[in-house]
Design goal:
Blueprint: H1 2-14, H2 20-31, H3 36-43, H4 47-68, H5 70-94, H6 97-113
Helix pairs in contact: 1-4, 2-4, 3-4, 5-6
Length: 114
């Protein structure tokens, strides 16, 4: 399951950088759950060709993340926003000015990241 989640994230962020042919085959195997044989028959290529293309696409997508770190940044921003949300809830109860300062600092950090 974890592999599929990773493939999905990589594809969501970098899938548009694949060729149309790569995207079509990758989507059929990974998202549409078609077998390698089914895709091979539809595309007029060998089962091994489909397998190799999927592995190559996985490496390409992972390579983009290694260079660009968009998914890592997304997760970091998401953690920061969740932390900010928790601080705002706490501030609403306490009206602590020091906490408001922390929220403001975190807000500016998130803005810089995006």
């Amino acid at each position: 399951m974890e592999k599929i989640v990773k493939q999905t994230l990589l594809y969501d962020f970098y899938g548009e950088l694949l060729t149309d042919h790569q995207r079509a085959i990758y989507e059929d195997v990974v998202f549409n759950d078609l077998s390698l044989s089914e895709v091979a028959e539809m595309q007029g290529i060998s089962r091994q060709g489909v397998h190799d293309l999927i592995r190559r696409c996985d490496k390409i997508l992972a390579g983009y993340e290694d260079k660009l770190h968009l998914i890592a940044r997304f997760h970091e921003t998401r953690r920061s926003v969740e932390e900010m949300y928790q601080m705002v809830k706490q501030y609403a109860e306490s009206k602590d000015e020091a906490l408001l300062s922390k929220i403001t600092d975190l807000y500016h950090k998130v803005l810089e990241e995006i």
